Amino acid sequence: MSTRAEAGSTEPAQTEERALDLAYDVLQACCPSRHALEHVTGRWGTLIMLSLREGPVRFNELRRRVDGISEKMLSQGLQALERDGFVARDVLSAMPPRVEYRLTELGRGTSDQLKGLALFIEARMPEVEAAQADYDQAEGA
């Protein structure tokens, strides 16, 4: 930190803080946070993360929990979430070897946010369905 900040001026400290706040901006095309956001909020990412909230689970059990997902999409989703640090893959020493997936600390915090969003949307579905019906009627006219 600069001598000015140590002498009592908060201007450089505030400038440094603002720079850190703006280090990542998901609205910018080149921002790496955009890819992580896409992995978490994509069609399958959110459902995978919500399913893992119940605790560690094996691949086939996870596939049963996330109704409609293919093996390929589940595998790709898990790999992306693991690479981003949201999910951990644990190989258990057993015969035959077992693999389980679980949320990391980062994944748990993120899934808490996703759960809140999912609950909000579920609670507001009558409004969503009414809006969809209104839109469809207007478009069909």
UniProtKB/TrEMBL annotation:
Protein name according to UniProt: Helix-turn-helix domain-containing protein
Residue stretches making up the HTH hxlR-type domain: 31-129
InterPro entries the UniProt entry points to: HTH_HxlR, WH-like_DNA-bd_sf, WH_DNA-bd_sf
Organism per entry: Catenulispora yoronensis
SUPFAM superfamilies: Winged helix' DNA-binding domain
Superkingdom per UniProt: Bacteria
Keyword DNA-binding: yes
Keywords: DNA-binding, Transcription, Transcription regulation
Record has Coiled coil as a keyword: no
